[in-house]
Amino acid sequence: MKNVLTRDMASALLIFCIGLAATLYAWTHYKLGSFRAPGPGLFPVVIAGLLTLVGLGLTVQALVQKVQTEKPDFEFRPFVVIMIAIIAFAMIFPVAGVLPAVLALTFISCFADTPLDTKGKIAVSCVVAVIAVVLFRLILGVRLPVLTGVW
Amino acid sequence: MGTIFDNAVLGLQVALLPTNLMFCFLGVFLGTILGVIPGIGVLVAISLLFPITFHVEPVAALVLLGGIYYGTTYGGSTSAILLNVPGTPSSAVACLDGYPMAQKGRAGTALFMTTVASFFGGTVGILALMGFSPMIAASAVRFGSAEYFALMVLGLIAASSIASGSMLKGIAMVLIGIMMGLVGADVYTGTLRFTFGHVALFEGVSIIALAMGIFGVSEIIHSVRSVKKADTTNHDISFKAMMPTRSEMRASWMPMIRGSMIGSFFGALPGTGGLIASYMSYATEKRIGKTETFGKGAIQGVTGPEAANNAADQTAFIPTLTLGIPGSPTMAIILGVLIIHGIEPGPMVVVNQPDLFWGLVMSFWVGNLMLLVLNIPMVGLWVRLLKVPFHLMYPAILMFIVMGVLTTYNDEIQVWVVLLTGAFGYLLRFLGFQAAPLILGFVLGPMMEEHFRRTLLLSGGDFTSFVSSGISQVCLGVSAALLLYGLVMTYRNRSKKSVQGPV
Predict the structure, then answer these.
(1) What letter does residue B193 receive in the DSSP assignment?
(2) What local confidence, expressed as pLDDT, does residue B347 receive?
(3) How far apart are CA A102 and CA B208, in angstroms?
(4) Element (H or E) spanning A94, and its range?
């Protein structure tokens, strides 16, 4: 084993850290009560404690196992692009309404990976935006502003 | 409660109402479309279409959800057979012999027999559901908090042990799911837990936003570059090509019957479901079958698992509707949806709302019938749908995810929740965790805590009360055995490469 921080080790540490942090947080912030009269903190501490133990178990497993589990590569470009697309939607919607938000969402998401040129991207965005407005506003009758101040 | 016959008549009266019929059709139709698209499983399909159910009454909403559920399962098998890409995880088995059949030019027959096997398995599952549900609901009065707690432990352990890869990873997911389920106000004291001062979290993490993020968004990120490789050659799907030969029919009967039995059993067990049922059925047929054709296009390898899969889909409703304990992640979502609709599933639903319960059961059957009549003429449409490139599809799927969450909660904060759970979900997926046990833990977590605390309160802090009855002894004993078995198997297989299935 050349690399100590393998993918399995990283996942073990992630679980261990989440477990430990949650245990300490629940322990210090919520009343534990007693077994006779359990408080709001008891169950979270038990669960988070178990999670910490599982994290330890995974660490041991990652150390002793000889062959690393093979997994797909991290899809970096789609990941970043989709995240940006959703952020754009979340920021545009409250200001401008559904139509511009969906246009932004779909247009940006097209950059994740696509053989489409700019014209194609715009076309896809427009079609999806029309579907969104027709389905949610006209068919389902959801009361959301399509274009703030206009419709 | 009357006899099964009376109940069936009552149910049919509800199921055959024109509005319910329409929603059943809509659900089956939309479910099949989404199931055919690779990368969309039942969980995503239900989350996506869930906003529609807000605009209809509870029975119709349930009928719609049921239709989406088994429609998606069916659609998943279609893409498994034609593309060798399972549209849903539980149809992974359909790839084994279905795709070789398609390569031999028997795609039409494979699809036809899948439909027949689905209907057969579904019918057997529904009969089991009709026969056992009232019995279980009646015996549910003997279930105290300790028994519910033990049953939930069993469900969660079973769910984490069938997840592929390491069992510890499955348990970690269940525990993280429980933690996420605890976010929000505590039922007993009103203490706000793990909200970190965010108002949006006071009522807890919303299940739809979580499911959409952790399954939908992370699945899109994962699939964007990989799905487009699939290509569909032209398959002969004319009606004539669909008809199985006489020997194929004869070879299919017994596998279908055995598959339905296996499926009905595993579907009803908490924590297991269609995936494990179809694998069990495949393994059984392989052992029984004398032919050497398994893996090369044996019809038994398609019909048996498909019947098992669909029977399991139906019997999975038994623990969900009678005890309020979801046996699978999909059922967890359906349960969450029911609670949002103001229906608290449990023994009382069967007793007090017979029209809802029996209407639902019979509409399952009507829905299965619709799958049969809908899909044979529509196979051509699904094949054409599979030819739409994924890069035209995923922007639309993303729009449905975001708009669905937005319209469900009418609150743009939930879009941020989707963003965060999507990123977290993709990270987990990259690290080799499976998200399905997480959802089950998420739904069961708050219920477990309630029963855990109630058991302790009632017994005055006596931990032996958790194992005082036969039911809880059996449940916890089986859980312990599963846990031990899983850990030993992980230890044994640690030098082998673990197989990573789709979420």
Answers:
(1) E
(2) 79
(3) 19
(4) helix A76-96
A144/B406 Cβ within 8 A = yes
Contacts 24+ apart (CB under 8 A), B337-346: B337/B46, B337/B50, B337/B53, B337/B61, B337/B65, B337/B207, B338/B58, B338/B62, B341/B53, B341/B58, B341/B61, B341/B62, B342/B58, B343/B58, B343/B62, B345/B320, B345/B321, B346/B140, B346/B322
Q: How far, in Å, CA of B411 to CA of B416, rounded?
A: 10
Q: Which two tokens stand for residue B341?
A: 């609709």
Contact present, B140 and B276 (Cβ < 8 Å): no
Q: How far is the C-alpha of B21 from the C-alpha of B64, rounded, in Å? A: 9
Contact pairs from chain A to chain B, CB under 8 Å: 196
CA–CA distance, B310 with B320 (Å, rounded to integer): 16
Does the distance separating the beta carbons of A70 and B182 come in below 8 Å? no
Q: What are the chain A neighbours of B61 within 8 Å (beta carbons)?
A: none
Tokens coding B323: 């005890």
pLDDT (0 to 100) of residue B284: 84
pLDDT at B498 over 50: no
- In tens, the pLDDT along B54-105 reads 777 777 888 888 888 888 888 888 878 877 766 666 677 888 888 888 878 7
Nearest alpha-carbon partner for B48 in A123, A135, A145, A82: A135
**Alpha carbon B399 to its chain's center:** 23
What pLDDT is attached to residue B290? 65
Which of B182, B188, B221 to probe the A interface (max A CBs under 10 A)? B221
Return the residue in A60, A136, A139 with the most chain B beta carbons within 10 A, the one to mutate for interface testing: A136
Q: Which of A36, A79, A81, A93 to mutate to test the interface with B (most CBs of B within 10 A)?
A: A79
Residue B333 Cα to chain centre, angstroms: 9
Residue with tokens 């989440």: A18
**CA–CA gap between residue B271 and residue B486 (Å, rounded):** 14
Q: How far is A85 from chain B (nearest CA, A)?
A: 9
Q: Find the DSSP H helices in B145-245.
A: 145-162, 167-182, 207-211, 218-223, 239-242
Question: Which of B126, B193, B119 is CA-nearest to residue B376?
Answer: B119
Give the ipTM.
0.90
A84-124: pLDDT as tens digits: 999 999 999 999 889 999 999 999 999 887 678 888 889 98
The whole-angstrom distance between B336's CA and the closest CA on chain A is: 21
Å from A30 to nearest chain B CA? 8
3-state secondary structure B31-54: HHHHHHCCCCCHHHHHHHHHHHHH
What share of chain B in percent tops pLDDT 70? 91
Measured between CA atoms, how close is A3 to chain B, in angstroms?
16
pTM: 0.82
Looking at chain A, which residue has its C-alpha nearest residue B422? A83
Domain ranges, ordered by start, for chain A: 7-64, 76-139
Interface touch A58/B463, C-beta < 8 Å = no
Dig out the tokens for B383 from the structure. 């094949």
Q: Which of A54, A69, A78 sits opposite B224 (nearest CB)?
A: A78
Cβ neighbours of A140 in B, within 8 Å: 51-52, 55, 407
| Residues of chain A found within 8 Å of residue B433, distances taken between Cβ atoms | 11
